[in-house]
Amino acid sequence: MALTVPVRLGTAENTLIEQLNSVGAAAEAERITVAGLPTRRVESYHYTDLKMLLKAIPPLAQAANEASAPALRIAGAYQLMIANGVVQAASTAPAGVIVGKTAGGVLSTRDDVLVHLNGALAKESLTLTLENSVDPVIQIDRRIEGEAAHAADSVKIFVADGASAVILETFSGSDAAHVGNHGTYMALGKNAVVTHVTVDLSSRSAAHFASNEYHLADGAKLRTLVIHAGAGLSRTQVFPRYEGAGAHGDITGLNLVSDGQHADITMDALHAVPGTTSQPLFKSIARGRGKSVVQGKLVVARDAQKTDAKFMHQGLMLSDEAEILSKPELEIYADDVVCGHGSTCGKLDEDSMFYLESRGIPTAEAETMLVRGFLEELVDPIEDEALAEALHGIIDGWLLAGK
Amino acid sequence: MADYDDIPTLKENIDRATVDSVRSLDVDKYKYGFETDIESDMAPKGLSEDTVRFISAKKNEPQWMLDWRLEAYARWLTMTEPNWAKVHYPKIDLQDMYFYAAPKSTPAPTSLDEVDPELLKMYDKLGIPLKEREILAGVERPKVAVDAVMDSVSVVTTFREELSKVGIIFCSISEAIREYPELVQKYLASVVPVSDNYYATLNCAVFTDGSFVYIPKGVRCPMELSTYFRINEKKTGQFERTLIIAEADSYVSYLEGCTAPMRDENQLHAAVVELVALENAEIKYSTVQNWYPGDKDGKGGIYNFVTKRGDCRGDNSKISWTQVETGSAITWKYPSCILRGDGSRGEFYSIAISNGYQQVDSGTKMIHLGKNTSSRIIAKGIAAGFSDNTYRGQVSAHAKAKNARNFTQCDSLLIGDKCGAHTVPYIESRNGTAVFEHEATTSKISDDQMFYCAQRGLDEEEAVALIVNGFVRDVLQHLPMEFMVETQKLISISLEGSVG
Amino acid sequence: MTTPILEIRNLHARIEDREILKGVNLIIPPGEVHAVMGRNGSGKSTLSYVLAGKEDYEITDGEVLLDGENLLDMEPHERAAAGLFLAFQYPIEIPGVATMTFLKAAINSQRKARGEGELSTPDFMRAVKTAGTELNIDTDMLKRPLNVGFSGGEKKRAEVLQMALLQPKMCILDETDSGLDIDALQVVSKGVNALRNGNRSMLVITHYQRLLNHIVPDVVHVFSDGRIVESGDKDLALQLEAKGYADFDGAAA
Fold first, then answer.
1. Contact B427/A331, CB-based, under 8 Å?
2. What is the value of pTM for the model shown?
3. All partners of chain B with 3 or more CB pairs under 8 angstroms
4. How many Å lie between the alpha carbon of B199 and the closest alpha carbon of chain A?
5. Domains of chain C
6. What tens digit of pLDDT does each residue of B401-435 get?
7. What gap in Å lies between CA B383 and CA B392, rounded to an integer?
8. Domain limits at B129?
């Protein structure tokens, strides 16, 4: 008796279908035709209704002719660039780093529209193989330049057993209504240690989408930090898979949203084998009518005993009209585990404010101090000083812009 | 049996006789699994507009009620089953089901003497007191007024006269539709709209009976009110409807219990419960849901798809849900509070136990609309066997809900490595002055705890029952005393066969 | 007559519908240390919060002058810059903010408010180091987030360190002895006593006489039911210790 109501397609969907067909991705085009863009009825998009939020899709990106100023420079970093989906020639790589490129996307197939679109539209991928520990920060500067464009790009990173690296990805570009769809696939070998920071600094008129997939072998240690501080609409999907005993992830993220912005961090983590651990920690700060979404799912597979995973989200409201929406999820199929999640939301603590003010610190300054303190947990573990300083700069810039 | 003397807090307030009688209960896998042979009057099988007309006619309903049902039926035809819950089941064939079954003892009994003795025996077997005299004779037991509903009809409601002296109406909803149409028309579907969801709309079209409670302004209900639901007939769906209205400054505590015979088919139970609390009123609603869960291989059992919602309509009103969910093959149930009045408060205390192949997807919604509203959620899920147990809950503060407060604690306990425990909270703050705190944990019974109990002479099952009872203690204490002992007993029965 | 450092006249305050301060009168001349003693719930801590400007309280009557200036018109941070310091009974933990960062911000905010220039980093470091040594506070503790994970003694020492650095005119010590063992109490008292001078006044709020053996007051006031019911010299504290508060209940009624 359930009638199949055909999905009414909007402008954005029709453009996507055309674009997918134009690159020969008929199956993906068909998928959009049948299901449309996800609405709030699709669980993983419950708070980010793409059908509502994506009104139009700009034309597919052409090769870039000009480049805007770099959004973030880290002293001494090894720079790589992808502009409008095209991998740019790189300078000589530091020892132990092999740079290359391959055709097509990098993400594993999953039931997710952004992953499908990235797979279909990314023409080439930057590949990095890290054979041993790399000293300088590796910065991948991903940007969309020129007129408003729909660009997809991807990066695949292999980190050898025992190697370590700090990788920064920045997303920026010209001040146009771009739609960026970025994919990163990273495989960490045994006992590899990686810090992966991704920062969206694209313009307010842009929509920024990223999907980061991680595979962790035995004893691998991963720290990630997603910062949304740019696009009007942003969503980063983080898919860590703990596939080897002793693998550990500190998956962290921060939404900085101001009036009219919508930022979404969605984590879907799988503890696939026994003896893996993770501590996801996400923070939201919203002001004006800004909206922050944090979803975090911890899945513990049937035999993944001794998993120890704790998810935490803390929201801070700096205005009465802001919205912070969170959906932590536990899906547990093994019994000998310690898993949990917490989510809190509120304004700045009044007692803390009073304490600072009673020491002579004016209200505005006290607020800034508390917000910085609130975020320190995310930036403090970043050991590279220049990178940590740059991240502090982004946070301070956001705070200053609100004064 | 576990020795409950170890739990002094529970024992203190319970008289010896009650404890003993509970102990002596027969420990069947499912002790309510008998069926009672009572002649019954049934609607033709299947669902159509005629079914709706048949039910309405059987109930001697006024025209407005029939029209209302038909409208709901028409609406339902355009709806689809929800699919977001973490439950799986084959398609339910509504055409292979009876929508109306009534014990054939017509006309409606006016006193207990007229009630079919078989029926009284059945309720007696269930341990539900229907004979006022006997209840009155029992010195220590508190008085409980009971509405007994079997299959599609309310068979008897006790203590009505005594309640009516203070202006309280406690009767079957069928009777309320005939006798108090203005109250029913004012409040029916005012909390759960006709088009709320697939099962609720279906319920509007075909509900057969249930309880109606009206507490007048300023009245504190002098006794616990309760309804016992029983599905007895084969291939029968039960669609009951409960409506409770608490006028300003009133108070009522209401209990609900459910059982069904063991059958190897799946039976559908799709109820709607609506609560309305006006200014300063308080409603406490407790449920012990023990529908037949199916056998150890997952065959049979009740599909329990229920919509329960309370509306804190008046300022400073309070609604508190307490539920113990041990039965049903599938439970899909989210007793919720709409915190509309300023200063209103919602509470949800839940114990959900799943074993065998049971699937539970249950939780609550706390919708903060008014200023200075607060809510509290304590949910304890226990998964054993091959079961899946999901807590799904929503806490939301709307833009005008200044100073909304919520505290949520969800704890899951897994027993064995073939089950699943899941937590899916939706936490939505749309107001800078709202403060929300949510915490969830998942754990198992530690080997140390088991060893400690073993060393003190408890076998594995006793130890598990003891530890689980401790795990759910925060919720147990919100149950009326009568139910507390029964619940502890029920917990051990539900978890039988979960270890070893 | 010299201007008192603190002058409280007929101060009434309430929280929601409950009146807590019911007409407090108190004058503290420069250089004097006054103690306020009273049982739990008598309103002593409320007095300290009201003076420091905590939002939760509504002042319904009375006035407070700090060195002749109207204190109640000022924001909490302005009161601090004007020279009022409250050593909290329960110092607040501020995660993520290093104690050193906080100290520097507080000193410079106050200097700025008074029209003084910022303290140079070397001068600041020197001042912190000097004050810290007296109180057994090493630089490691100063790198930790403010009060987070500090023991009871560490928290109180950090409060006195702040007092020493901020050089207030008027110090209010709210139950500074709570949670301290005898050794910690001596260190803290020594720190406080070192700050006593002819211009700086102190108000020591305490439940027990014990603290007053270490910080010897010039005047002792008994606080009961929201007001001062008896005043005397330091022997009054001993008397209280011996007899309890019961004798003073309703004394001012």
1. no
2. 0.85
3. A
4. 14
5. 6-94+169-248 (3.40.50.300)
6. 999 999 999 999 998 888 999 999 999 999 999 99
7. 15
8. 4-494
